[in-house]
Amino acid sequence: MQAAMPESALIGMCDGPIGGRKGDTFYYTNKVGGNPDLVPGIHDQCNQCILCDGMLSHVVQIYCPLGESPYHRTMNVFACVNPQCYGKPESWKALRSQCSESDVKQLLERQHVSNLQVKQVPMSTTEWCDEADDWGMEPENDKPQSCARTPAAASQPVADTAQAALDASDRLVGLCISGPGGKEATVASTAVPAFQPFYISVMEETDLVACKDLEHANRLLKEYEEREGVAVRGNGSSEAEGVDEKYEKAEAKHGDAVFSSFMKRISLCPQQVLRYSWSGSPLFLTEPPSNITQVVPACAHCGSPRVFEFQLMPALVSLLHNTDPNSELVLEFGTVLVYTCRESCWMSGSNVPVEEFLFVQADPDQKLFK
After folding, report:
1. DSSP three-state, residue 284
2. Burial class, 162, CB count within 10 angstroms (exposed 0-12 / middle 13-18 / buried 19+)
3. Which pLDDT tens digit goes with each residue over 111-142?
4. If you ran DSSP here, which 8-state letter would residue 195 be given?
5. Are 275 and 10 in contact (CB under 8 A)?
6. What does the pLDDT look like over 262-272, one tens digit per residue?
7. What span, in angstroms and rounded, lies between the C-alpha atoms of 93 and 59?
């Protein structure tokens, strides 16, 4: 990779499977697959594909608070696994959820009162994940130890919802789809395909450039090579030449300068599954529309322009497998770019996530990534 980096980004790489125990992940956990973790105060959403009416599967979750903002901030990306919907942006959804520290404290106080009223139900506590990664933010020392229950649970009779309050951070409330004439069709949670969950570790792209022999990066690269059956690294001084030759061949074969630029940029870390650069420049896989700035709509809530925030990378495709080993689950894409409100607008006390904009590019030649 060239010494002059256009702009730095945060690189996300899969870093080990997530166990099946309750409480292994929280809304501040960066992860692939599994089920989304609710931000305190946010209601569960029934995410449905508008093309085929199928339920959307959870693809990735990142915790990404902004600068000096008082809000915790989590992004969740969902996609339809119906092959007929591949490559269509309508089959994807990106949701932004936020909550302030005061919101968390109020919910915890509410939960505490509820527990005092129902003494026969023991209260379980959960430690904050010591190694939870975030995107450029240091953990705060005054974070609560557990996720509070949502207002929906609090509005029900205490005796009926005490146990539900304990599970509010990770349970899925009955998935209901409103049909014509006000009818409701209940969808069992088993009907929602789930990908095997993995933690995402985060590194600065500049660190990868400066520390090619970084132990953690080398370990992840070795795992990638073994999993994919490819040899990305060369031996000795021929390493850089081998990488350059590989991508020169890719360019000659594909004949696309944008594609070649994409491949060269990720060549130092081909196993990256996510790139994060708030208000930065995305890496397009193929030539984007000339009017891309007009293609990305303004925020539907406050009217502010949307800016690029992060994108899903091709290496993620091979990691997406069904949690059910007896059932195949496939999702195909090249790269998925997520644009969010520049102001990250949020109404305090809101319990509904804000939907953001995605731009999907199909992989022009999937075998070049194998």
Report:
1. coil
2. buried
3. 666 666 654 444 333 332 333 345 544 444 44
4. B
5. yes
6. 998 898 899 99
7. 10
